[in-house]
Specification:
Chain B: Its EC number is 2.3.2.23. Chain B: Pfam families: UQ_con. The complex is a heterodimer. By secondary structure, chain A is mainly alpha-helical. Among the domains of chain A are: about 150 residues, Zinc/RING finger domain, C3HC4 (zinc finger) (Herpes Virus-1, 2-Layer Sandwich); about 50 residues, no CATH class; about 140 residues, Four Helix Bundle (Hemerythrin (Met), subunit A) (Up-down Bundle), CATH 1.20.120. Chain A contains 15 helices and 13 strands. In chain A, the strands form 6 sheets. Chain A has a 3-stranded antiparallel sheet. Chain A has a two-stranded antiparallel ribbon with strand order 2-3. Chain A has a two-stranded antiparallel sheet with strand order 4-5. The longest helix of chain A is centred in the last third of the chain and has 53 residues. By secondary structure, chain B is an alpha+beta fold. In chain B, about 40% of the residues lie in helices and about 10% in strands. Chain B has a 4-stranded antiparallel sheet. The radius of gyration of chain B is 18 Å and the shape is elongated. Classes of the chains: A mainly alpha, B alpha+beta. The interface between A and B is medium-sized, with 19 and 18 residues.
């Protein structure tokens, strides 16, 4: 153990040296160019570049949409309603829209056709003739009733229906099918898309309007790769970033999540592996793994049998079956007679194969359970830490009674913060390791992990211990030392993993 | 039931009576709520279904005509796009291509057209579709025989089919099950008996 500690010490120093090097580099850089970085997290995050993001409310999303609309409209000058459909067609990628728009050299008809809208340039001529055509009543093709022309309406494709049917139609599409940007004209084989203006005109019910607007912003956010909904329940905020990356972002509601996959921030695991892991934990594939590792099927009636000891002469308990067979070779018992130990089928190829399969599945299960237990442990502890926050708050108040100033007791809260961060990281380190083949780098990783785990547990213990007047100074020193150590170990571990990602050290298992 | 659906159905029934006398299709109400109807189409000429009368169940959803009616065959039929067991239909306008401006009349006419032109690449019944593609003469023979047995289609019944069906039913199997087994195995008696049940 001693030598291990030495080794860690050494690594710590080297990483410190590296950090200092980097810091001084930065200073030099700043001195030369006079660019002051916008760093809201302060110097604490000096090791990583700050990942820029902003948190937007639902209203700000609508504003952002309008902003993009206006921006494009300044260039191409198409009615807003048409432009909105066009933009949606191009997944709100305005550059792509403009590129395509001008690719056709002033004749963008194809774009309108692809986006299922009637070209606003063609419109003027056709519209007028339609309007003048007749003043008599017309029949709505949906409800088969006749109405005066003023009660009939439609899109620019010319198919008209009564307003009653229109609003029913839109209601069904919005409320039942959750459509917003892609609702087509109700006429058969007509693909022209309903614009937002006509929806707002025809739908008066507030609930439907709200849902429509929500669906619109939703589709805007979903198809924009730089926007992400906060995954917290009932949170309607959106995070906007400048470039897409696997980075933590923090919503106004307090939830910290990975921008790439929307799960809780899960460094050092990759999104891909986390997803696989969560699926594995969620579905009962492990139950079936357990079954295949610990049970066999009755060769006659296929009922699942778990052997809990005893001899290998098995009689199926199923009332209708009562089949007698050999547990080892699964063949009928009769030829075995009284001397199972001479079971001549024991070495038969398929029996051996079956045993191998079972063996492997047993090992896989053991392995999974190993990582899962540790993952679950930290997850469980993490849940308890909210209790710890309350406890620590009380302690801080106690300590202030004991002649300490507010500022002097803040270290306790900081310690719990660090503890939670460490637990979260530790939790994901087990997911990370689950997907890896053994190699030297993994050994280093596991040493880092072990050291960090040990330190984290000690810190956790300190925080739960009683604080008395006599020991208070001493405890403060110990806690502060410990959480600084934990934090630095956490950074070392994460940096090592990140370096591995860059240098391709990790050898993934095919699971 | 929503009023649009009821008025639409009433209106449609009236139109069908006046317009469709010559088109070999028929729709009538099954109950007073306008949500369950019975339809009939006559097998189009030039197909194995010629002259057969095929009965259909038509369920009208509450959101009709904004959602399609649910249509299935009551009369058993041998067709790649219709399940030979349940009568379920695979037709685009009954699913995502439905439009509110379509009517029951257009649905029935489309079904008639489907009988004339099957789409084996988009099958509902994989067994039938495979036979249609790999052994067309067996398919035609089977479809015609089914139409004669279940849909009262006119014409002399195929002697081979009658005889084999008789053999299997005499062994104690139900007629429908025997016919299904023989048809699925392209009238090979041995294969049918292996796979029956």
């Amino acid at each position: 153990m001693d030598s291990d500690d030495d080794y860690f010490e050494a690594e710590d120093e080297s990483s410190l040296v590296e950090d200092e090097g980097r810091v001084s580099d930065d200073e030099g850089f700043l001195g030369d160019t006079m660019i002051v970085p916008d760093d809201p997290l302060g110097s604490g995050s000096k090791e990583e570049d700050v990942y820029p993001f902003v948190c937007l409310s639902a209203e700000q999303i609508v504003e952002l949409m309008l902003e993009i609309l206006n921006e494009v409209n300044d260039i191409v000058n198409i009615p807003h309603t048409t432009l909105r459909i066009l933009l949606a067609h191009f997944n709100w990628d305005k550059e792509l829209l403009l590129e395509k728009y001008y690719e056709y050299d002033g004749n963008p008809e194809q774009i309108f056709k692809d986006a299922h809208v009637i070209s606003p340039f063609k419109l003027k001529s056709t519209c007028k003739t339609k309007g003048q055509s007749s003043r008599t009543d017309a029949e709505c093709e949906i409800c088969c009733s006749s109405y005066s022309r003023s009660f009939m309406t439609g899109l620019n494709c010319g198919h008209i229906f009564c307003k009653g049917c229109w609003s029913q139609y839109l209601r069904t599409k919005i409320m039942d099918e959750g459509m917003s940007q892609t609702i087509p004209c109700p006429a058969y084989k007509c693909e022209i898309i309903v614009d937002d203006e006509i929806v707002m005109c025809l739908i008066s019910e507030k609930k439907v309007r709200m849902k429509y607007q929500h669906l619109m912003s939703n589709s805007f956010v979903e198809c924009n790769s730089l926007l992400k909904w906060c995954p917290a329940p009932d949170c309607h905020h959106v995070i906007k970033v400048e470039y897409r990356d696997r980075q933590p972002v923090k919503c106004q509601c307090g939830r910290v999540f990975c921008f790439e996959c929307s799960e809780s921030w899960h460094d050092p695991v990759l999104c891909l592996h986390l997803k696989k892991w969560l699926k594995k934990c969620d579905d009962d594939s492990e139950t079936s793994n357990w079954i295949s590792a610990n049970t066999k099927e009755c060769p006659k009636c296929q009922v699942t049998i778990e052997k809990d000891g005893g001899c290998n002469h098995v009689i199926c308990r199923s009332q209708t079956c009562k089949h007698e067979f050999c547990w080892v070779c699964l063949g009928p018992w009769d030829p075995h007679g009284a001397s199972w130990y001479n079971c001549n089928r024991y070495n038969a190829d398929d029996a051996k194969k079956a045993r191998d399969v079972q063996q492997r599945s047993r090992e896989m299960l053991q392995r999974y359970l190993f990582y899962c237990n540790r993952y679950m442990n930290h997850l469980q502890s993490l849940k308890f830490e909210s209790k710890l926050y309350a406890l620590v708050k009380r302690k801080m108040e106690e300590m202030q009674q004991l002649n300490m100033s507010w500022i002097e007791v803040q270290f306790l809260k900081k310690a719990v913060d660090v503890l939670c961060e460490c637990r979260q990281t530790l939790m994901y380190t087990y997911v990370f390791a689950f997907f890896l083949n053994r190699n030297n780098q993994l050994l280093i990783f596991e040493d880092n992990q072990a050291d960090m785990e040990k330190a984290t547990e000690t810190l956790s213990e300190y925080l739960e211990r009683d604080i008395t007047t006599a020991s208070i100074r001493e405890i403060k020193q110990k806690v502060q030392d410990k959480y600084r150590y934990c934090d630095s170990r956490r950074n070392v571990l994460l940096n090592h993993v990140h370096e591995g990602y860059d240098k391709d050290w990790w050898d993934y298992l095919d699971l | 039931m929503c009023s649009i659906a009821a008025t639409r159905i009433q209106r449609e029934l009236k139109d069908i009576k006046s317009e469709c006398s010559g088109q070999n299709i028929k729709i009538e109400l099954h109950n007073d709520q306008f949500d369950l109807l019975k339809g009939e189409i006559v097998g189009p000429p030039g197909t194995p279904y010629q002259g057969g009368i095929f009965k259909l169940s038509i369920k009208i959803p509450e959101t009709y005509p904004f959602n399609p009616p649910k249509v299935s065959f009551d009369t058993k039929i041998w067709h790649p796009n219709i399940s030979s067991v349940t009568g379920a239909i695979c037709l685009d306008i009954l699913k995502d291509q439905w439009a509110a401006a379509l009517t029951l009349r257009t649905v029935l006419l489309s079904l008639q057209a489907l009988l004339s032109a099957a789409e084996p690449d988009d099958p509902q019944d994989a067994v039938v579709a495979r036979q249609y593609k790999e052994n067309r003469s067996a398919f035609i023979k089977t479809a015609k025989f089914w139409a004669q047995i279940y849909a009262n289609a006119p014409g002399q019944r195929d002697g081979d089919c009658v005889e084999k069906l008789k053999k299997v039913t005499e062994m104690g199997f139900y007629r429908d099950i025997s016919l299904q087994a023989l048809s699925s195995n392209s009238w090979s008696l041995a294969d049918a008996l292996d796979n029956i049940g």
